[in-house]
Amino acid sequence: MTHLRSSALAALLAAGLLVSGCGGGDDSDKGAAGPTPAEVMDEAKQKFDDASSVHIELATESTPSEGNGVLGANGDLTHDPAFEGEVKIILNGLTATAPIIAVDDKVYAQIALLGPGYRVIKPSEYGAPDPADFADPDEGLSSLLTQLDGLEKGKESRSGDQILTTYTGELPGEAVKRIIPSADAKQTYETVIGVDEDGYARTVEITGTFFSGSDDVTYDVELSAYDEDVEITAPSTS
To answer: Does 122 map to a domain?
Structure first.
């Protein structure tokens, strides 16, 4: 009888071990989860800051009837810092697009009203930022990624041939104003970030008040061509 009881007990113990062994791996595997939204933004910021260059397209479909400001920018940004491309502005109700080179703490522009060739300008006089400042890790474009309040993971979306995971939150106006000077520092801005499968920020959509007397405006930023071989030098001036 004792032998039978021992055999039964051994069988039960063996069965228990088999059941626990079939439970799908150890506990660390069960609890494994992807990165938090904050960790995703931290990584995306680091990738932007580590890249030698990034191609930037900033644009809005809205054109206010009054006020001055930047409506778009398209060009290459390096971490020298430097920028070469075009900037679209609205000034006293008129819009204009000007070739821009920002390097060595100077901004050069070709503005038709000022004559041919590049001239050194002060972007603030045109309601525009120094686009080279977009590379600043503390106050430039990448800083927006880690200043989102109420950050949450959203749905997947498509941008061209890329599948992006979106993240939503609100940006303080002070942060947005450093990129788009017509922003209201006292407001908050609804923001959507699109991150690709490799952890790179590819799209930034910012919505809120940018011009007095107008409805909410949305600015779209597309980031591409990370880490290309880009060299930007100062142009000859007139």
So the answer is: yes
Other beta carbons within 10 angstroms of residue 6's beta carbon come to 10
pTM attached to this predicted model: 0.83
Domain that holds residue 115: 38-224
- Tokens 């407001």, residue? 187
12 within some domain: no
Q: Which two tokens stand for residue 224?
A: 């591409």
In a domain, 42, yes or no: yes
Q: Are 131 and 100 in contact (CB under 8 A)?
A: yes
* pLDDT tens-digit readout, 146-183: 999 999 999 998 877 889 999 999 999 999 999 999 99
User: What total number of domains does the chain contain?
Assistant: 1
In the block, residue with structure tokens 């030698």 = 52
Instruction: Determine phi and psi for 31, rounding to 5 degrees.
Output: -90, 0
User: CA 194 to CA 54: how far, in whole Å?
Assistant: 16
